[in-house]
């Protein structure tokens, strides 16, 4: 399995040359974007490069590699936009790019060591900048990780950071008939509930997290009623603080989930395929609860679980999320009234359990069914198939 990560390193001595390079880069991105937009449909990266390359090099003054990177990135963004249009989420629009972000190719645009990063700039060629390499980031410079295309970003605090993208091939646990599976249900009452094939379970981050977020919601409501400029600044500050809180909580919870999986010798973790589910949940949720459903970081927690699992050699399997909270784990009867808040009581067979745990058990069962099917067909995993 390929494990990918992003390591964030602070640039300690950014200068006007770096800032100007980023501004010129965004100017090139916006020029290429305007070409695609006025063309009226997506353009392949090679064709777009033929159209804009001369302008990027001669008029904007970008280096050769940057002038090749930009068409690929812009074409990729419009390809994503096209997919969103097909799903009915957005309409055709011109994509604009911020002057506070720049993507670089490893070796061609940058090189990096533990203490510095050398970046190709507009006026001074390849220039070295000192980076703050945190203790927990030094492990990624031991030669076992591959560096890939990375970014320079100016964060909201005004400082510049190098977002180093890395990847590594990690061994995957061999899937056997006796393998232990685990299902993980994500929610609001508990951030996550896990259940294994051996019926061992665990509840992670309970209602106190929801209480904290309710406090943020109350403060935000009070500030919105004032409508002053200072109140709006405070709302922005609270929003950023809440996002940092949830990111930290999600990191802690995902680490605990993987630890629980390792302790129980889990080979595959099952997660709900949440693509598109957030929008559906928001539409079907009572108005006074929509804040929690729309802002809850489901996908972020899944991402953290996924990359930590891969790092531990555990495979992730996404399963159909339909009716996991309404289906009885014992008799498979599905009904909306099976679940009543935190309680699950099957109207057909009488089975009772914690509602979130019942959902986690259903996810585990669906994951196990996929695993058994793979075993019977002799295709244990993509990694093993390609070996």
Automatic annotation (TrEMBL):
The keyword Membrane does not apply. Residues 165-277 form the Probable transposase IS891/IS1136/IS1341 domain. It comes from the Archaea. The keyword DNA-binding applies. One of its GO terms (molecular function) is DNA binding. InterPro entries: Cas12f1-like_TNB, RNA-guided_DNA_endo/Transpos, Transposase. Signal peptide: none annotated. Residues 298-363 form the Cas12f1-like TNB domain. Pfam families: Cas12f1-like_TNB, OrfB_IS605. Keywords: DNA recombination, DNA-binding, Transposition. This is Transposase. The lineage of its organism: Archaea, Methanobacteriati, Methanobacteriota, Stenosarchaea group, Methanomicrobia.
